[in-house]
Design goal:
about 260 residues; 2 domains; three-stranded parallel beta sheet; binds glutamine; D-Maltodextrin-Binding Protein, domain 2; alpha/beta
Length: about 260
């Protein structure tokens, strides 16, 4: 009896150890198993206040984020065999969200500046835009110097904010107010609380075409802004994204999409 008891005890200890070890390795496996679930989805962070690149389409009773950037993102996701999910946030919060792993990439008409390259990786560029001054019709604000003595609004965290703040160091009397949404800039202009906004041409055009009281003038000496996609510096996707962008350009698909969103 004594002998068999100790055999049973040994067997029990052995079985318990096996169960505990299985539990541990099971945990590890389920940890690894999360990766494939996560990687079937590609999360894009954007600031959907930027027609025709990204904006809310509420026609037909539903609210959908659409635009050129969204179509390009869908193309890339399809190339990678992944499902696209879009998160909307303020422009200024995009790169922090990327760094906090709350998104796989950022697409928001974003310019790959040297400053941003210190914290994130960028793909090849896929589009280009120019800065314009948007103001009340008849203002004729053509260049940075014309902004002297004016209240100027820009999007918080944008290259337009840097451009006008840099100009304000040499041109006296420019009062710069950064705001979260492009719609807020337009409201400030319309109400007369601000006299100028710096907005990129294709985006400005949409707002100016739908408001008779606004005009836009390209700033000839300032602001070529290329657009690229931002990814975390350690992302394994950068090369695949670049291949997809190359294919998008060479196949003529990008031209087609540009026509779809910009017209002629
Ligand atoms: N291209 C500009 C930038 O990168 C503006 C982009 C935007 O406001 N969506 O800052």
């Amino acid at each position: 009896m004594r002998k068999s008891k100790s055999w049973v005890t040994k067997a029990l200890i052995f079985a318990l150890t096996a169960i505990i070890m299985a539990g541990c390795s099971g945990k590890q496996e389920s940890g690894q198993a999360e990766a494939p679930t996560k990687s079937t989805k590609l999360v894009m962070a954007t600031s959907a206040d930027y027609p025709p690149y990204e904006f809310h389409d509420t026609s037909g009773g539903k609210d959908e984020i659409v635009g050129l950037d969204v179509d390009i993102a869908k193309y890339i996701a399809k190339e990678l065999g992944l499902e696209l999910e879009i998160k909307d946030m303020d422009f200024n919060g995009l790169l922090p969200a990327l760094q906090a792993n709350r998104a796989d990439f950022v697409m928001a008409g974003m310019t790959p500046t040297e400053e941003r390259k210190k914290s994130v990786a960028f793909t090849e560029t896929y589009y280009e835009a120019k800065n314009t001054i948007v103001a009340k019709t008849g203002s004729h604000l053509m260049k940075m110097e014309d902004l002297s003595g004016k209240k100027v609004v820009v999007q918080l965290g944008s290259t337009q904010q840097s451009a006008v703040q840099e100009a304000a160091q040499t041109i006296k009397g420019i009062e710069v107010t950064p705001l979260n949404k492009i719609g807020d800039l337009i409201q400030e202009l319309k109400s007369g609380r601000a006299q100028a906004a710096i907005i990129e041409d294709t985006v400005a055009r949409g707002y100016v075409e739908s408001s008779q009281d606004l005009e836009m003038n390209p700033i000839s000496d300032n602001g070529e802004n290329a657009y690229a996609i931002a990814l975390p510096t350690d992302s394994s996707h950068v090369e695949k994204f670049n291949q997809a962008i190359k294919k998008l350009k060479e196949s003529g698909e990008l031209d087609k999409l540009a026509k779809k969103w910009f017209g002629k």
